[in-house]
Every structure is written in C-alpha cells, then in structure tokens.
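Bug report

Summary: structure tokens for Succinylglutamate desuccinylase/aspartoacylase family protein differ between web form and batch submission.
Environment: batch mode, default settings.
Steps: 1) Submit the sequence below via batch. 2) Compare with the web form result.

Sequence submitted:
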Amino acid sequence: MTLSSSAPPSPLPDGPGAHPRVLGRYSSGRPGPTVVCVGAIHGNEPAGLSAISRVLARLREADVPLRGELIGVTGNRRALVERRRYVDRDLNRRWTPENIARIAQGTVETAEDQETRELLAVFLPLLRHGPVSFIDLHSTSALSTPFSCMADVLRNRPLALALPIPVVLGLEEVIEGSMLGYLCDLGHVGVAVEGGQHDDPRTIDFHESALLLMLVAAGSLEPRHVPDLAAHRARLAAGGDGMPAVCEIRHRHVVKPEDEPFVMAPDFVNFQIVERGQVVADDRRGQVRVPETGLMMLPRYQGQGDDGFFIARPVSRTALRVSAALRTLRLDVLVPYLPGVSRDPERADHFIADPAVARVAVTQVFHLFGYRHVRAQAERLVFSRRSPAARPVLPAELAPLLRAHEESTEG
C-alpha cells in the first residue's frame, strides 16, 4: 500500500468500533507532568486501549484532581481495524531519524508512514513544552505474566520500578526503530508494559493497574486519590509472583523473509527456562536452537513480525543501584581505559571494542553505564547508549512538521 502526502489516509470506518487517534484527555487544570499513554501500536493488541478508556472514565467520573494531563492515544488505527499487527510494515520498527525526516518532509509510502505522521501531529505540540512521559501498552501472542520494558536510562526507572512486575532491560536497544526508543533519545521518559496475552481479559485489568500505579509514580496522582491502589498493586504482584525482578536481553532471533515460514514449537511462555542448544522453532532452514541458556521471551505465535524470540537472563537489583551510582558520578569517563576499548573519534557517546578482549566482564561494565546497543563494524564492536540528556530536544528532522504546526496555529 502506498499513500502520497497529499492524499487522504486510507478510509477508516466510523461507529462504535472505530477508535479515534486521541482516545481522550483529562486534566483538572493543576500544573504537573504530561503523560501520554499509547495503546495498539500493533493492531492485534487492543487491550491497552480498553485500559486507557477505563482510567480516563474513572478520572472523569470521580473528578480527580490530577496534576498535569493524561492523554490517551491510539497507535496503529488501520491495522487495528483489520486486527493485524501491521498493514505494510511494523509501526514500532520505523522510528529512526532517517524515516522520520522522510515522513516529515511529506514522503508517505506506507500505511504505517501515515500512522507515524498522524502520531507525530499529536506528539509535537507536547514535545515542544518540556518533558513528556510516554507509556506504551502492549500484549503478547504467547501466554505471559505482565512485565515492563525500558531503555536503560535513569529517567525511565522511577516509572518502571514503581510496578511490582519484572523489568526487562535491553529490548529497546536490540530492536531498531521503536517509538519509545526514538522519543527517549529526544530526552523524554518511555516505559512499555506487556500486560499479557492479546485476548486474555486479564490483560486489560493488568494494564489498568499499571497505568494507575505509574500515574502515582509520575506525580500525576496522589495515592489518596486512588483508594484501591493497594488492590491494583496486589493484582500486578500476584501476576508476577515468582518471576525475576529484573532481566536483560541477551539474544534476539531475527526472522528474515527467506527464513519463512517460521514456526515456534508449541507452549513456550515468557520467562520459561530454556537450555543452550534446545530446539525451540523451525524455519525454512531447519531447526532453530537456542544459542545460550536463559529465559524465553516474546516467542512469536503470530504470522507477522521479524522477532522470532528473545533470550534474557536475570539481573540483580544491586547491579541497578551500582549502575545508577556510576552514572550519577559520571564515571563513564573511565570506560576508555577498559582493555581493548577506545572512544569513537567522531561520536563521543560511542566506544569501539576489540571483540577478542571485549568478553563478558567488559560487556557487563558497558551495561552498567547503559551501553547496551552493540553492533559489528569493521571487525570491531561498537557500543552506544540511549541519550542520557536530562533536557529534551527537538531534532532537525521534525522541523517541517513544526513549521506546519505553527502555520496551522497562526491560521
């Protein structure tokens, strides 16, 4: 599907089954944080929208004195109509500066490009006026207890750690072009919550509880304005009972077009222990085996998407506290002194490592400082991290949309 910038988006049905781009907004007029909650960034994950609607209705009915504003947003409206993960391309894999620049300049090639442009039209006025906390509600194709994901920057931790569910680190670094990753690089807060299986009614409940707890953690709500707060915390805690408090992604199995059909072996669930060499799927090439022992995460039991599965391993909360102290003290100036490591001559926030010496210990040091994005380059490994900047920025690629917004406002 190809859409021109001058053509209207593909038709969307009206009526009770259609979701508006902005589900709703709530503010009591008191100053405070701006929280944007997005549901259905994948069209086969509608539970988040139901939870957002519940919370907005609750706030309105009780006339809660919210600080700041809560805005509920629908992600991929076109895919949602079709109950598919996406129409042309995964909407949560295209948020790169290059793609955003192309879309902002008016080159709209796919249904998801149009979705991105419409989402940016909602986000841009908010991005101009200070930090925004983005909460992205997801669900999974496999059975799952709820868990959260975040890019490993300190400003994300208060929201993610406010929930009594596992926190998964590194997912935003091993996938390219996620919406939260892009917004986080602009200096905003971004936390995703995987609430459970797509069609499990409990997933809506888990999302509702998570959103209320994060609104309290963000300073939008006072605990006394959520009289059943303990029950919501207990609901989430029970869902994550027995799970590790924190995990980090160690491996991503990418499904390429030439690998299809990719078929997961049945009955894998999130956080299930798998052993190195265990057969977990089949594709056109044959059996797919796990490269290392760890925890199965996000096994693909749906036809779309290039993420076959991930492997994670537990991380101690002590490691989180140590990493917070190291970053607060800005001791990453010591990173170039690690064996086989040097600073990239052109990019101050990138480090080059000799793979012969960048073994587990060195990699773990990089992780402590938030350098979780690793890629091969000319027989070397390049480590980088999400922007730790405390002050949000508007990048150059958004300038065309900003001008259009200012002209429409003046008009």
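Above is the batch result. After comparison, the two runs are identical; trailing whitespace caused the diff. Residues 1-10 have pLDDT under 50 and may be disordered. The longest strand covers residues 30-39.
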